[in-house]
Amino acid sequence: MGARKRNKANEAKEAKKTQYFAVLRDCPTSPRKMRLVADMVRGMEVNRALDVLKFSSKEASRKVEKLLLSAVANWQAKNEGSRLEESNLYVNGINVDSGRVLKRLRPAPQGRAHRIRKRSNHVTLSLGSKNIENENA
Question: So what's the architecture of 20-136 in CATH?
Answer without folding.
Answer: Alpha-Beta Complex (3.90)
